Amino acid sequence: MATSATVSSFTTTKIIEKQPESPLQMAWRRLRRHKMAMFGLALLFALVLYVTVGTLVFSEDFANYNDVTIKLRGPSAEHPFGTDAIGRDILARTMYGGQISIIVALLAVTISLIVGVLVGAFAGYYGGIVDSSLMRFTEAMLNIPQLLLLIFCAKFLSDKINNFELIGREFSGSLIVIILIIGFTSWMYLARIVRSSFLSLKNNEYITAARAIGVKNRQIIFRHILPNALAPIIVAATLGIANAILLEAYVSFLGLGVRQPTATWGNMLEDANRYLATAPQIWIFPGLLILLTVLAINFIGDGLRDALDPRTLTE
Q: What CATH number is given for 21-62+100-307 in this structure?
């Protein structure tokens, strides 16, 4: 009898000591069970190390140094990824080019997040004529082919901005154009997602109570509703990074993206079509890095979508 009481007391104590998980802890637990998402995280971490730590080994001057006497060389001990059409080391250029490709994607997604969240939040919260006007504008933007608009703007605007120096590096002026165009043409789907979240959340009791005690609309939008709509926004932002990397690669492959002297994975492929058979190293390595990065981000996005799903978050 005493033994039974002791076991019962011990069990009760253990139950009391166990703290309930927060939504963030539950999401992390679910994400860890998603094998492909964890593989994507590991792969993305390795790629980030490659483009950051690698630039501590090779200088940018070395990455941009050309020696036509060794052009189109295959992989060797001196140049593990070989050399390009003017004798530049492909390994070093993929490191510096990867930095720019990722930075372009992150900045473009930041712009699209700001625009998409603001448009979706105001449309969903205020409704009525505000909602109708913003959604008609969003639908009009959706009807414009993004890639066509990107190519058109890159063609006629890239030469308008001069090259500039930042943190000791020289960047092409077209870098700014590509970031702005991708950012301002990628927010529409996110705006619709945010709007639908606001429409479902704005009539909850805690929002009604906030209005009743005189909380300003701005505070309700950004402090009460938006934090509860972060899950789909995080997923959309993650997948948007992969899309931005691909868009930059598209236009750079056509010769309209980020231009020299700034290297990106995309513009490294620009001349590759002339050497598909004779010098495959020119396109294999930057192309493979783009593929691995996009796959890793998509795996992470799929895992986040499952982990942050409010319908299964309590499992």
A: 1.10.3720.10
